[in-house]
Amino acid sequence: MSESSGNIEDPVKIELFRLVLKTRMTEDRIIALYRQGKIVGGVYTGRGVEATTVASALALEKKDYLFPIHRDLGAHLAKGQTILNILLQYLGKGNNLTKGKESGIHFSDRSLNIIGNISHLGAMIPVAVGVALSLKLQKQNSVALNFIGEGGSNIGDFHEGLNFAAVQQLPFVLIIENNQYAYSTPVEKEYRARYLSDRAKGYGIPGYHIDGTDAIKVYQTVKEAVERARSGKGPALIECKSFRMVGHSAHDDAFYVDKELRKKYEKKDPLIKLEKYLLKNNILDHDSVDRIRQEIAEKIEDATEKAIESPLPDPEWAYGAIYASNSDRMAYGD
Amino acid sequence: MATSTYLEAINQALFEEMERDESVFLLGEDIGIYGGAFKVTKGLYKAFGGDRVIDTPISESAIIGSAIGAAITGLRPVAEMQFADFITVGFNQLVANAATLYYRHNIPVPMVVRAPSGGGIRGGPFHSRNPEAWFFHQPGLKIVAPATARDAKGLLKSSIRDNNPVIYFEHKYLYRRVKEELPKEEIVVPLGKANISREGDDVTVITYGAMVFECLDAAKKLFEEHDISAQVIDLRTLQPLDMELILQSVQKTSRVVIVHEASLSGGIGAEIAARISEKAFEYLDAPVKRIASLDTPTPFSPILENEFMPNAEKIYNAILEIMKF
Ligand SMILES: Cc1ncc(C[n+]2csc(CCOP(=O)(O)OP(=O)(O)O)c2C)c(N)n1
Fold this sequence. Notes:
The complex is a heterodimer. Chain A is an alpha/beta fold. Chain A is 42% helix and 9% strand.
């Protein structure tokens, strides 16, 4: 674990552990439901990137805006989303947050200032930058944080968005989840630079390259960047290096992944790493770890039951309105 | 009453809406001190300052994408494309993000993208486009295309006040050629309502944008020379279409000519023709005729561009042909 992890208080470290574990266990349940044929559509999990996604979102305040992408279930959880809402979404139920209109991991929640992604990689970057612009113009003292994969970082929107954010010195933080594969494509075929965080220089903003399997390090770095952005000093780019420990999605056995690399990163499993650290430093003991695990298991059990019993959408909803009217609830934050 | 050009009418609408509602702000390339490539935003930077008239980098996707972000957090952005042609760079933001947010997440996206469109200004292949049909195919967007100064002003005001993403195609050819007396009182023209630009009984001519004037010229000449009375409908809003007015007119005249400056195939005229044949087939005395630009890029040389685009003469001939049935 990181040298300076002493700066962070123990309750935060415990919360990081609880959320990383909750993410791992919830995703395991989603995969089990997928194997039972209960999930509508595909499943992408964040196994291996949980430390990055959880710690980044936990570094935000409630009023800050979160733009998670396809492996960021952990970020949804860290921002306060319930397991039930997540499962309802994956099961395509009528009482889910999108009323059955959107797929598994694509959902927004106004009450939590979460804005869901679309499939197009990178497309949320300019939107998140726009939220940051709006926050600055309205002097709201909040920050927008968005994720992008190392693969998605090669999309034009990455450049347009980050450059505009830099020019306007917006309260925006972009996290690159470098898990070393984009579907089957290894980093050698994705970009030439040693560090993607070096791109920050080109925009005149700070860039950090950190160990994305180290939740405490990620939390510290993101927190600093978020507070810097909040104080009006502009955006930051943070590359968190980790590893995609499973296939691209539940159907993919990842036969193409380098065996040595996999071995190396299995030793860096973010969950095991954090648990060991907490035990070794007497922040948690085995009993409390078990208790946390048990609490989460019960929540998942309960949520699964409720989600499965929930109603499907009404076929009529397919005709659902495509235009907002004047009586609609308008903006986030209203 | 004072005389205003089409361009000045747009400027007035922006000014009045920014004054009325402080959540309205502008973003785009060279729109600040410079006042925009066509000077549409002239004076607004001085009046409202750099926080409400924001010069952006040349990044159409970031302009449209960040307008979306601002729209869902309490502001009403009006983004300017320097030319409608460059809207392609922000295409994904419009069709994938802006258009679908309300359907998917129940989040209204109150924003306007102003796009100076159209040919006849010798702009060549990349400064002359009429790209409305691409967006017409994407549910969730509204599309506006004014022809008169009054409508340019009134429709822009409605677009800014609308709670949906609106693409506002302002025709470059009309910017300084159209001049009208505009009343001192506020003008607000509702979206989704077409206008009858000329009353007539013999044939319905459906059009929008700069072609309205070509159609009116043709209609005048047909009346003078052949006693044919054409009803000219200016659609004004392309999405949603005012089918009620269209069908009323078709039922009266039984003959239809659709005219647009965008290329023929897959154009908005195709959808209108299909709807007429579905809903008013029994009223028709002649096949629906479409007049549009050629299915090629816009050529540069004036001789070629004249050949490429519809004009009053081509419309006049097409109507004569339709009257033979
Ligand atoms: C614009 C676009 N192109 C292709 C895809 C299909 N796709 C979905 S995820 C993915 C790989 C993404 O890799 P990366 O950004 O590194 O994220 P990771 O999945 O590794 O976390 C691809 C190619 C897409 N969603 N969007």
